[in-house]
Specification:
This protein has about 240 residues and is α/β, with parallel strands linked by helices. The protein has 7 helices and 9 strands.
Length: about 240
């Protein structure tokens, strides 16, 4: 089967039938060649309803999840978007077909290099990626109309909230373990008010960083360091 046919079937069977209704999202998913974002030996599996392995022991999310997160972000043509955990560049490519500009932060330099080369080869020139700690966002490019995190955090990093434009949306998986995550949508209603919506259960690779999981992905930093220090002292005292 030709990839274009497989792509069209993916849109019809995996996306439309499961409730993805945004014409912009469906058109972008139909346009971007997912087979170009995986290793050649996995290209034949590019349009299956599952994530696939990429370099650096990371994954490219299943098509439905990419579409669902982008639809939840409510992207428009004039929007500036940030992706946390850019990986292969696939989700950024899809978003670039809808939004004006897409920025991506990825902690693995090898992924930034390969994704940038891939995006350039495809002619997607409104995307910029850089190597860094995604839990800190990208302050120099803020504010953003939408932020999408393609990895799961133990809690929502404050920096990402602060980098949202008023009216902007943050879509991020949050949970104490990789297998117990909820997809959270945070909307900045005003300079001081944020609203939150639970979009359902998900499973993503861990978001590593100063305000995410530690490198071994089994322990996490505290969202409120002074409170954690007091708690730790109390536990030691109790044991003593």
């Amino acid at each position: 089967m030709r990839y274009s046919q497989a792509r069209d079937q993916m849109v019809r069977h995996q996306l439309e039938r499961r409730g993805i209704a945004s014409t912009a999202v469906l058109d972008a998913m139909r346009e971007v060649p997912r087979e170009a974002f995986v290793a050649s030996h996995l290209a034949q599996h590019a349009y299956e309803d599952r994530p696939l392995r990429i370099e650096a022991n990371q994954t490219i999310s299943q098509p439905f999840m990419v579409a669902a997160m982008i639809e939840a972000a409510e992207l428009k043509r004039e929007h500036i978007v940030l992706e946390i955990g850019a990986g292969s560049g696939y989700a950024a490519a899809v978003m670039s077909r809808i939004a004006a500009r897409v920025y991506g932060v990825e902690r693995h330099a090898e992924l930034v290099q390969s994704a940038t080369a891939r995006l350039n080869a495809l002619g997607y020139d409104n995307i910029e990626l850089h190597t860094g700690d995604g839990t800190e966002g990208w302050m120099e490019k803020a504010p953003f109309d939408a932020i999408i995190a393609s990895a799961g955090a133990p809690y929502v990093p404050q920096a990402l909230k602060e980098q949202l434009e008023i009216g902007g949306r943050l879509i991020i998986p949050v949970g104490d373990t990789r297998h117990d995550q909820r997809l959270i949508k945070i909307t900045r209603e005003s300079a001081t008010l944020l609203s939150e919506e639970d979009l359902g259960g998900v499973a993503f690779v861990p978001l590593i960083g100063a305000h995410g999981w530690k490198e071994d992905a089994r322990t996490k930093p505290c969202a409120h360091p002074p409170r954690c220090r007091r708690s730790s002292t109390q536990r030691r005292s109790a044991k003593g």
